[in-house]
Amino acid sequence: MSQFHGGGLARRTALRRRRPLGGGVNGNVWRRAAARTTRSKLNSSNNVPSVSSTSPDDETPALSAFHVVDRGDYIGFQIRHEWQSKTIPADQYSLVYEFDKATAILRARFATNEKMFNSTFRRLLALAQATFYGLAVQLAAGEIGLKSLEDELVRQEGSLIKNQYMKQLARAAFVASMIILVAATAPNYIGTLTSEYIQMSLHFGILLVSTMWGVWLSFAVRNTKLTFEQLQHLEADLMRPWSRLVTVGLLAFALALFFHVEIVSIKIGSISTTQITDNFAVTILVGLGLGFMDKVLPSEVTRRFDDFFQSANVNS
Predict the structure, then answer these.
(1) How high is the pLDDT of residue 315?
(2) Which pLDDT belongs to residue 49?
(3) Which of 37, 63, 239, 299 could form a disulfide with 243 if both were Cys (CB 3.0 to 4.6 A apart)?
């Protein structure tokens, strides 16, 4: 027994002498290092590229240039002291901009609902803090989390916002239609006007009424799925329902005059725009079309006026 223990002691002593310097490295680390060396030799001897076994914990994360501060109703992004004289990465600036934009949209959307704003803002703040946590920044996680939060808000608020706007636009279109019809039928009670003028007035009134509802239909068709930015502004031109209807109505009236005097003529089959004062079906169809193309109507009317006045200059 004594020889067995003595032999074991001698072998352990010999192993300790053969260990590399740095005896603080424990046995597990030493064995893993030896295993990696063996795998590297095997790979090189077989001409097989070595596969990195680096774990995610060993990867160095990107350094955060910002420190997140809770400002109550908005998120403060302070540039860290060590980044004051350095160029801040564009991807971090871009993500900070997205957080600021999301905060502004939330503030606009929930301006009259403080409870809902606080609840959603706290989630956004927690996401920003997790993204720029400590000295490290998790850009991919922040982008994914922000996109997920935005999509959730669109699903939650999108249908409500769209339906509210469509109701406002429908009410405005109805009131505008009543005003237009009253104005269009008023010449009937003026005895000095000719029947031709009365008929033209009525047809133009029907065309404008159709245009009002064409605008409503255009919005319903174009905005089948809202974006996160539309939670703040449904339309890029920032027009309210009444402003939109008045603007489109005047543009449609101008283009209808071009049709009436035959400066511009569109013919499809047996139907022509010159019939807008003769055929109610054509009048309604043209009016709906003008309202439906409300987005391109300004440029179209501008082009027609440019052509008209350029032709006038040439003739003069």
Answers:
(1) 57
(2) 35
(3) 239
What is the per-residue pLDDT for 292?
94
pLDDT value, residue 277 = 84
Kindly report the pTM of this predicted structure: 0.68
The CA distance from 284 to 260, in Å, is 14
Burial 192-227 (b: 16+ CB within 10 A, else e): eeeeeebebbbbbbbbbbbbbbbbbebbeeebeebe
pLDDT, residue 143, reads 94
CA distance 193 to 209: 23
CB 169: neighbour CB atoms within 10 A?
A: 23
Q: Which residues contact 308 (CB under 8 A, 6 or more apart)?
A: 258, 263
Return the ∠ at Cα 152 (arms to 158 and 162), rounded to 5°. Answer: 0
Per the DSSP assignment, residues forming a β-bridge with 68 are 77
Compute the distance between CA of residue 131 and CA of residue 6 in angstroms, rounded to an integer. Answer: 59
With vertex at residue 41, the alpha carbon angle to CA 38 and CA 43, rounded to the nearest 5 degrees, is 110
Residue 262 CB neighbour total at 10 angstroms: 10
Report the C-alpha gap between 233 and 246 in whole angstroms: 19
Tokens of 89: 């990465």
Q: Which residue has the tokens 């009259």?
A: 112
Q: What are phi and psi of 79, to 5 degrees?
A: -75, 130
CA atoms within 13 A on the CB side of 97: 6
User: What are the tokens at 284?
Assistant: 């309604």
The reported pLDDT for the residue numbered 312 is 64
Structure tokens at 168: 């406002």
Q: Round the CA-based radius of gyration of the chain to a whole number and report it.
A: 37
| Interatomic CA distance for residues 282 and 125, integer angstroms | 56
Query: Are the C-beta atoms of 37 and 103 separated by less than 8 Å?
Result: no
Closest CA to 215 of 292, 308, 136, 117: 292
The low-confidence residues of the chain, meaning pLDDT below 50, are: 1-58
Which of 308, 295, 299 is closest to 244 using CA atoms? 295
pLDDT at 43: 43
Place of tokens 């509802």: 213
